[in-house]
# Entry
Amino acid sequence: HQEEAPLAVDGNLTTVWETDRYRTAALGGLKPGVGYVLSLDSPEEARQLTLTLTAAGADFTVYGTDDDTIPDQFGEGSGWTQVGKQAGASARPTVRLSGGPQRHYLVWFTDLPQDGGGYRIGIAEAVLRS
# Structure
């Protein structure tokens, strides 16, 4: 939902970027995860990421890259490096980050909380701090 991406960094807790709704917490077995990318103008070392989520209970990993472009693959040599992780997150988790200066930070959700008739998560605000 790229068109909703700016809503997670607009300073307004009533606007939200959301994933699709899935039939199971593990994204219906359709894919390994779903993510949101925070991009900076130049690589900077963020020490923590604070999220305001639409619900508690999500599992996610934070990856970083100092590449100019956003890598579209994971794994060995992809350009992404794990810099943080959270399991069973609260609705307002703060994750400590490591890994040095990064240009792009990916919040990769792998397990979603229940939301009405399915499972999904939304980010009302995402804030990186050095």
